[in-house]
Design goal:
mainly beta; Immunoglobulin-like; five-stranded antiparallel sheet; 0% helix
């Protein structure tokens, strides 16, 4: 919704729901000992789920986890990669659970296995059963990497992990290709190559001129049964000619393909093939063109003080894309050269800027997190005094944790910030503080309206949240009291 500065809006009625609780134990599959710091995430498993997002918590020191969820059906997944654990290929990595109002669901325990080095091996042959030497084999999933086949058509790809591995074999010289899946490290797939397909695209600017010497390739994904975790394989890159055209291939057939440009893909304004395309063996297809506008998008707006007066010469920066400007005498600004889409995402996902504004002398700030470039209304914001956050870090037994590091960062799921908040003096977007001998920590310079979360990071570099999302009011000082990373 658009909430102009100084104008109240009616958001209508808000219905509170009770929800339910899911809890369980995460353990070492081999020893039965509890495993801590494993992220347990709930994904809605039903279509048209009324509540957006997903829910994540962490197993505590005793391996226990607890998730409070709105009513509905979910897939539960335990991600132990940060703690050195994973699921084995012979057990389900998703657990389905149904939650009702006021219900506590227990017993959804998860057993994980320590990560070990594994190898996927196999053989590549042609349609006559003869081994293919020099074929490129790419792997993604349980094992990642690539290798070339030897004189007997055999390949070997080593890596950490296990479970399903998606494989793609290509004989570029003869135009042959094939897809395969190794469901576990014990599989030794025999991959039979067949005729590949070919796709031609053209990369152009807004005036229709071809863009030459640009790296382009295709990719496709192999999904698990619940379509919550995919393995994506990228085909070798090829380059556009002087007219901006490139013929991609050989490509695998009967799978949805996406073309990906490695130049400045965030400046794509249109692609003629839509969400993807599927080819048949031996098919040749012109899938259209990609229009790229390097001039980028523009966000306009005003900067006002707390009384609604325009603020001139205010610095306005997109903390992600690095574009910046200053307000004029009427407080208006234009941030130009912004991407149209999020980096690494399909063109249907619009770029969202993280706008921060402040006076050169500091003291008051404003922010517009997650402002989408496609929104057709001004990005008005007000400059206000920053807030602060303090607390005391304690262990599970209540003992102060002295000399530990607490990190603070905004709750934001886009690309990393490329601009330092030091451009605005004493403002704080992300940073860290070490606890004193009594476990106390403090952060100053929090921008009003920005959602923050604090984390404790252990000696292995694994971060656990010590707070829920926090939003400060102008000049407000929040004291959390005692907080623990084991909660």
């Amino acid at each position: 919704m658009n909430a102009p500065v100084g104008e109240p809006i009616d958001v209508g009625e808000i219905e509170l729901i009770r929800g339910g609780v899911v809890n369980g134990l995460v353990s070492d599959r081999e020893t039965g000992e509890p495993v801590t710091k494993v992220a347990v995430t709930a994904y809605p498993s039903e279509e048209d789920f009324p509540f957006a997002g997903l829910w994540t918590t962490y197993a505590d020191a005793d391996g226990h986890y607890e998730l409070r969820l709105p009513p509905g059906r979910y897939w539960l997944h335990g991600d132990g990669r940060g703690a050195g654990y994973q699921y084995r290929g012979d057990e389900p990595w998703l657990h389905e659970v149904e939650v009702a109002d006021g219900q506590s669901v227990e017993g959804f325990d998860m057993s994980l296995t320590p990560i070990e080095a594994h190898t996927v091996t196999g053989v590549v042959v042609d349609e006559d059963g003869r081994p293919v030497e020099g074929a490129l084999v790419k792997a993604a999933g349980g094992v990642r990497g690539e290798a070339q086949t030897d004189a007997e058509g055999r390949f070997q790809i080593a890596g950490e992990g296990e479970g399903m591995t998606a494989l793609l074999a290509i004989d570029q010289r003869r135009g042959l290709v094939a897809r395969a899946v190794a469901h576990s490290i014990d599989d030794e797939p025999r991959i039979t190559l067949g005729p590949g397909a070919w796709a031609t695209i053209r990369l152009v600017d807004p005036e229709g001129n071809g863009i030459a010497r640009q790296p382009v390739n295709c990719r496709y994904s192999v999904w698990d049964q619940a379509r919550t975790y995919g393995r994506t394989l990228y085909l070798p890159k090829q380059f556009t000619d002087q007219d901006g055209r490139v013929r991609l291939g050989p490509l695998p057939s009967r799978v949805e393909l996406e073309v990906w440009w490695y130049g400045a893909a965030e400046f794509i304004t249109r692609e003629d093939w839509g969400e993807g395309f599927t080819l048949q063996p031996g098919e040749e297809r012109d899938v259209g063109r990609v229009v790229v506008d390097r001039a980028g998008a523009t966000i306009t707006g005003r900067v006002l003080d707390v009384d609604g007066n325009p603020v001139a010469e205010c610095l306005v920066i997109d903390m992600i894309g690095e574009a910046e400007t200053r307000t004029d005498e009427s407080g208006r600004f234009e941030v130009t050269g912004l991407p149209f889409i999020r980096d690494g995402v399909r063109p249907t996902t619009a770029y969202r800027a993280f706008i921060v504004a402040g006076l050169p002398e500091g003291g008051v700030y404003g922010a517009l997190p997650d402002f989408e470039v496609s929104w057709e209304f001004p990005a008005d914001l007000a400059l206000e005094a920053p807030g602060s956050l303090a607390g005391r870090l304690v262990g599970a037994d209540g003992t102060p944790m002295a000399g530990d590091r607490v990190e603070l960062s905004p709750v934001y799921y886009g690309p990393v910030f490329r601009v330092s908040a030091s451009r605005f003096g004493d403002v704080l977007l992300e940073g860290h503080a070490d606890t004193d001998e009594d476990g106390h920590f403090r952060f100053d310079g929090l921008i009003p309206g920005v959602r923050y979360r604090a984390y404790w990071r252990d000696a292995r570099g694994i971060g656990l949240p010590v707070t829920d999302e926090i939003v400060t009011d102008p000049g407000n000082k929040i004291d959390l009291g005692d907080v623990s990373p084991n909660q």
